[in-house]
Specification:
Immunoglobulin-like; 4-stranded antiparallel beta sheet; 7 strands; single chain; 3-stranded antiparallel beta sheet
């Protein structure tokens, strides 16, 4: 079985990346915003999150115990004189949390063109197999 890094947050994504996700939980249940891709290449997990309209200063990434949390807070722009004919672009705050299933050695974060990219490098697994010598008395 492939090594998985995170418990899921969304049943639809679970089907798309089954090796990373399981049952929905917590704050993420039913939330698709922001849209997120998670994939694995050579034992390293990658996450891409579409956060157009946010700057890197609007986003906070924390790891506490075994939980990775990504939070985006943006001040709402007030335009009292605007009479919108159509308004499709909605800026809203978000918070998504993921339970990490394995210890992570390092997380790198990059922000480019409205996409937040995380690289999660797991702690290298070592073969802990030991041969135990049996002593006689």
């Amino acid at each position: 079985m492939a090594r998985t890094f995170m418990y899921p947050h969304n049943a639809m994504l679970d089907e798309m990346v089954a090796q990373f996700f399981g049952d929905a939980f917590g704050k993420n249940q039913g939330s698709k915003y922001p849209l997120t891709n998670v994939y694995d290449e050579d034992g390293i997990a990658y996450m891409e999150m579409a956060v157009a309209g946010f700057s890197k200063d609007d986003i906070e990434i924390t790891v506490e115990n075994d939980t990775l949390t990504i939070k985006g807070v943006k001040e709402k722009e007030d335009h009292p004189n605007r009479n919108y004919i159509k308004k499709d672009i909605a800026m809203r705050n978000f918070e998504k949390s993921y339970n990490l299933m394995f210890p992570i050695e390092k997380i790198d974060a990059e922000f480019e063109n409205g996409i937040l990219k995380l690289t999660l490098v797991p702690v290298k697994q070592t073969d802990n197999k030991q041969k135990i010598e049996i002593k006689t008395k």
